[in-house]
């Protein structure tokens, strides 16, 4: 089992950091999410920090903020389409905004959220699209 160094925020916005044992980076992220921690940085212990951009000009921080805001909006009872519309319009990164808006359009056309997010692997990794 590997050890992963992480940084994140609690639901109340408090910054947290620590080390967690897991079989993979994805499992570590799931374990932290179960503790209601939004991960902002996660790397295997002893390895160099990962590049802060996921690819296609989408930063991990932007995705983490999107994920947190999306979660809060859904928990508050806002409709899925409305959440995506609001977050897409507020996103300053045009590339990421286009991905969010395309996801919204796909969902409006009848696709599942999961299938729509899988079309944008540079922004929504497998963990977020399941």
Would you kindly provide a written description of the structure presented here, covering whatever features stand out?
This protein is α+β, with helices and mostly antiparallel strands and about 130 residues long. It has 2 domains: about 45 residues; about 80 residues, Type II secretion system (T2SS), domain F (Receptor-associated Protein), CATH 1.20.81.30. The chain has 6 helices and 5 strands. A 3-stranded antiparallel sheet has the order 2-1-3. The protein has a two-stranded antiparallel sheet with strand order 4-5. Helix 2 packs antiparallel against helix 3 and helix 3 packs antiparallel against helix 4. It starts with a strand and ends with a helix.
């Amino acid at each position: 089992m590997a050890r992963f160094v992480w940084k994140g925020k609690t639901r109340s916005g408090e910054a947290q950091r620590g080390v967690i044992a897991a079989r993979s980076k994805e499992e570590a992220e799931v374990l932290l999410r179960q503790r209601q921690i939004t991960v902002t940085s996660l790397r295997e212990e002893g390895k160099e920090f990962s590049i802060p951009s996921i690819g296609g000009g989408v930063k991990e921080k932007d995705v983490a903020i999107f994920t947190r805001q999306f979660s809060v909006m859904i928990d508050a009872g806002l409709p899925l389409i409305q959440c995506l519309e609001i977050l897409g319009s507020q996103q300053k990164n045009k590339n990421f905004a286009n991905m969010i808006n395309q996801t919204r359009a796909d969902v409006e056309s009848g696709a599942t959220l999961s299938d729509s997010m899988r079309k944008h692997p540079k922004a929504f990794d497998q963990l977020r699209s399941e």
